[in-house]
Amino acid sequence: MLEKIGRVHNSFLSQSAVGKKILVIVPHEDDEINVAGSVMYNYVQKGAEVYCAFTTNGDFSFSAATRMREAKQALTVLGVKHIIFLGYGDTSNYYKGGHLFYTAQEPVNSPSGHNETYGSDISQDYAYQKHKMHSPYCRQALKNDIQELILDIRPDMIFCVDLDVHSDHRVASILFEEAMGEILRRPGNTYQPAVFKGFAYCTSFGAPKDFYDINIQSVPLPPSRDDVFVGKSLYTWGERVRIPVLPECRGHFLRYNILYKALFQHASQSAALHAVRIANADAVFWQRRTDNLVYQAHITGSSGQIQRLAEFNVLNITDIDSKAISFTQYLWSPNSSDTEKKVSFHWKEEVSIAYVELGGNVENTGRINKFELSFPDGMKYILGPLPKSGNLLHYSLPVVQHTNSCQLRILEADGTDYGISAIGLYSYQFPKNIGVPYIKIMCKDEFIYDYIIPSSMKECQLSVYRFGTDEDVIYHLEDGSRSRITTSGKIIFAPEERMLHVRAELRNHPYICDDVWIYRKNKFYFYKMSILQNIERIMMDFYLRKYRKYTHIRHKYFRKL
User: Fold this and answer.
1) Stretch 209-222: mean pLDDT
2) Is the pLDDT of residue 561 over 90?
3) Enclosing H/E stretch for 173
4) Where in the chain is the domain with CATH 3.40.50.10320?
5) CA 82 to centroid of chain Cα atoms
6) Domain 438-521 has CATH 2.60.40.60
7) Yes or no: is domain 16-288 CATH 3.40.50.2300?
8) Crossing angle of helices 139-153/167-184, nearest 10°?
9) 293-434, what's its fold?
C-alpha cells in the first residue's frame, strides 16, 4: 500500500542535532539551495541552529534588496532563521573592473558601483553589524570577515561552496579555506569543525533533469569538462560524502517538494526551473578533515616551500576567471639539488598517529613512487607510489605511534616537478567531529527509500553506503516476509509478495540502521505514474517560464520586484 510511502526510517535522519550549529557559506542568493538545500532542511528538522551566510549581495543584475528579500523568503521555507549577508559585490568572470580576489588591500568597484560592503532594509552587512563600519572590497577584508564569522558562530559543521566555474564561487571557496587554515594553525587551537565542500553547478544547478523518474535519482557523476575536476586530488567520486534526504525533499511530484518551494522564492533567478536538477536522493560533498595533526606541528624540511604542507587550501589557483582550472603553487617540491628530500614534523606534546593520507601531483609532470615514513623509535614504513591525478593514498599504521615527531623522506620519483600536495597525519581513521556514523541502503549505487520495481523482477541486489565506519552490515526482512535476503544483500522475492520492509544495521551497533520499503508494481502502475508525472512536468515548465517572463518584465519597467 502506497500510503506507507515516506515512513522509512534512517538513524541519521532521525537523530537529534539539538545543540549543534550548522553554517552554510555560499556566494549568491539561491546558491544556498544549490549547495545545501536538503542539508539545511534536514538539520532544521533535527533541531540544530542553522546559519546561512552569503558572501555577495547578488547585485549584478538585480538590487541587493531584491536578492536579500528572496533569500530570506527561501530560507524561511526551509526553516532557517539565521541569515548573514557579508555584503560584497556580485561580479562576473573577466569583469573589466577587476575582481577583489586580485587586490589584497586596495578596494575595487563592483559592477553595481560599490567599493565597500553594504546592506538594505532587509539586513545590514555583517561588518557594519559587528563594527559599525563597512568592509572595503578587497581580498583581505573578505577573508577577515569569513574568519570572524566562523569564530563568532563556532559552528560544529560547515558546508561551503567549492571551485565552481563562476569567479565569485571560486573566491568564496579559496578565501574560506585560507581563513579556516589560519584558524587551524593558531597555536594550541582545539576548534576543529567538520567541514564539507560542495559544488553548486556540476552536481546540482548543472546536473541532468532527472527528477521525473519512478524512483528519485542520486546525484550522478558529472561529465568530464574543463571546469569540472571531480576525479582529481581530494575529489575522487568514490570518496564523496553522500547525505540522505528527508521525504519532503524527494517524492514523485515536484509541486510538493520543499526544495522547489524554496527555489520558487528566487524569482529574479527563475531558480524554480532548475528544481528538476537539484532535487535528488542524496546531497554530495567532499569532507575536508580539520583534525590533521600537521596543522599544529612545527615543520622543517631539507628544501622547498614546506609551509604548503600545513595549508588547508590543498589546491591553489591564481586565475579565477578561466573556465579551465589551472592549479599553481600548491606542491611541496624539494629542490633538484636536494639529496635528502625530507620533511620533519615536531609537536610540543606527544601525539598519536594511526592513519596517514598523502597526495601528489595533479598534473603528469612528476610522481613520487616510493617514500619512507619514520619515527624516533626506529619504526619505518615504506609506502608508494602516490596515485595519479593527485588522488590520495590512504594508509592505516599497523601500530599506533605515540610520538613527538616523525619524518617523511622521498626515496624514488619520476619527472622533474614532483612533490606532495596534501599530507594528513591523524589519530583516527575516521574523524570524531562527524557525530554518529550512518549507513544507507542502495540499489545499483542509488540511494533508495520507497523503491518501486516491476512485479516481474525475481531478484534485487542491495548494497550499503557507509559514512564514518567500515563495520560489517547485516540485512533483515521485517514483518514476517516470505521472501529471502542473503548475507550479501540479494533479495529473492516470493512470487506473491508485493511489498517488503528491508532493514540494514551495523553488526555491532544495531542502532545505526536504515529501513526501506520495496514495492513490486505491475505495468499499469508504471504507465499511470509516467502519465501523471509528464502532465505535471509540462504544466510546471509552462507555468514557470511564463512566470519568469512576467518577473523580468516587471524588473525591466519597475527596476525591482
Assistant:
1) 96
2) no
3) helix 167-184
4) 16-288
5) 20
6) yes
7) no
8) 60
9) Jelly Rolls (2.60.120)
Q: Which helix (H) or strand (E) segment is 537 a member of? A: helix 523-558
Q: What whole-number distance in Å separates Cα of residue 515 and Cα of residue 442? A: 11
Q: Which H or E run contains 548?
A: helix 523-558
Residue with cell 624516533: 376
Is residue 297 packed enough to be buried (19+ CB in 10 Å), middle (13-18) or exposed (0-12)?
Answer: buried
SS (H, E, C) 5-34: CCCCCEHHHHCCCCCCEEEEEECCCCHHHH
> Looking up cell 614546506, which residue turns up?
306
- Give residue-wise pLDDT tens across range 139-157: 999 999 999 999 999 999 9
Contacts of 285 (CB under 8 A, 6+ apart): 159, 196, 197, 198, 240, 241, 243
Joined grid coordinates for residue 137: 572590497
Q: Report the alpha-carbon distance of residue 498 to residue 453 in Å, rounded.
A: 10
Please, which contacts does 487-494 make with residues 24 or more away whose CB atoms are closer than 8 Å? 488/461, 489/461, 489/462, 489/463, 489/464, 490/459, 490/460, 490/461, 490/462, 491/459, 491/460, 491/461, 491/462, 491/518, 492/458, 492/459, 493/457, 493/458, 493/459, 493/460, 493/520
Q: What cell numbers appear for 478 in the block? A: 521485517
Q: Give the number of other CB atoms < 10 A from CB of residue 80.
A: 24
| Angstrom distance (rounded) from CA 259 to CA 252 | 13
Q: What's the rounded Cα separation, in Å, for the pair 125 and 122?
A: 10
**Angle between helical axes of 31-45 and 64-78 (0-180°, round to 10):** 30
DSSP 480: T
Q: What is the pLDDT of residues 521-558, one digit of tens each?
A: 999 999 999 999 999 999 999 999 998 888 877 776 66
- Residue 278: in which H helix or E strand, if any? helix 275-278
